[in-house]
Design goal:
about 325 residues; alpha/beta; Isopropylmalate Dehydrogenase; 2 domains; 12-stranded mixed sheet
Length: about 325
């Protein structure tokens, strides 16, 4: 690959489920003039159908051609098996949805792109199409062969997760010293490399109510979490906790932290989404490239109606450009 100038950020864009709101959000994103390159890994028919439904202009050009003006979008064609109706996922398109994610990610791993932005997928349609799928975070981690951490972020708070998509009854067994250490090391490194924080401060939540109440409401804080935090503090990391989850997100406390590590999905994410769902994004920390996704689902009931809010995709793209630029600057 030819060397590119430091300011020439190049992003891969995957719309996600073709019957959901992802394609039309990409069409809305394409209406914005850009100072970076954006290449969609998608079916052109799906994007044109979304543009027609929104009555918005869309000029698709082959990947490799300049497309930075409003209404233009470069595309690497990944053909769907069928053109679905808005709001009705078709399992026959599962291969194309996963194929677009894999090909875009492979291009990032090769260094052809500086980052990956992804729209929402429909897990049931993918699994019904015969592809075992638990989430894009897990898929990208397996493909890259590395350990990752899921972080959700908006303008108010950054929340990293020690465990992700687990039934609640399995969470306690999944909280091990190894998991806590890995989560904190990856989060700490990402706050430095991707957010430019030289000495980040991380708050760690307890697993149990009141962070275990000195062992009276559960012992994981004492036996599992606290020893790891003490060891990492000994290495110089600034870590606070384990903290009770019901008070850690108070605005006065949040101002003291650069990120919060939650033990499980619904411990931290409801607070984040309440504090600013529209601008929230989903980051996969630990990958060799930045990956930022929207923080919402396929919204099948809104698809094709022009009602879907593009704010999260706009924020995801802005975040990915910022992280990619920071990484390239440091390289």
């Amino acid at each position: 690959m030819a060397q590119r100038a430091a300011g020439d950020v190049r992003l891969a864009l995957v719309p996600g489920e073709p019957a959901g709101v992802g394609p039309e959000l990409c069409v809305r994103l394409a209406q914005q003039p850009r100072d970076y390159d954006l290449i969609a890994f998608a079916d052109p028919r799906t994007l044109r159908a979304a543009a027609d439904a929104l009555a918005l202009p869309l000029t698709l050009v082959p990947a490799g051609q300049a497309a930075r003006n409003a209404g233009e979008l470069a595309i690497k064609e990944i053909a769907n098996t069928v053109l679905p109706a808005f709001g009705t996922p078709d399992r026959r398109n599962a291969g194309a949805v996963i194929g677009a994610l894999r090909e875009a990610a492979a291009s990032c791993l090769r260094g052809d792109f500086d980052g990956l932005v992804t729209g929402p997928v429909h897990k049931a349609a993918i699994n019904e199409g015969g592809i075992a799928y638990t989430g894009t975070t897990e898929l990208l981690a397996t493909q890259a062969g590395c350990e990752v951490v899921m972080m959700l972020a908006n303008d108010v708070v950054r929340v990293a997760l020690a465990t992700t998509h687990l039934p609640l009854r399995e969470v306690a067994d999944a909280i091990t010293p190894e998991v806590i250490e890995r989560t904190l090391r990856i989060t700490h490194a990402a706050l430095r490399s991707d957010f430019g924080l030289a000495d980040p401060v991380i708050a760690v939540l307890g697993l149990n109510p009141h962070a275990g109440e000195a062992g009276h409401l559960g012992g994981e804080e004492i036996s599992v979490i606290e020893p790891v935090l003490a060891a990492l503090r000994g290495e110089g990391m600034q870590i606070t906790g384990p903290l009770p989850a019901d008070t850690a997100f108070l605005p006065a406390r949040l101002r003291s932290f650069d990120a919060v590590v939650a033990m499980y999905h619904d411990q931290g994410l409801p607070v984040l989404k309440y504090s600013g769902f529209e601008r929230a994004v989903n980051l996969t920390l630990g990958l060799p490239y930045p990956r930022v996704a929207v923080d919402h689902g396929t919204a099948l009931d809104l698809a094709g109606k022009g009602l879907a809010d593009p704010s999260s995709l706009f924020a995801a793209t802005e975040t990915c450009v910022r992280i990619a630029s920071l990484r390239r600057h440091h390289r």
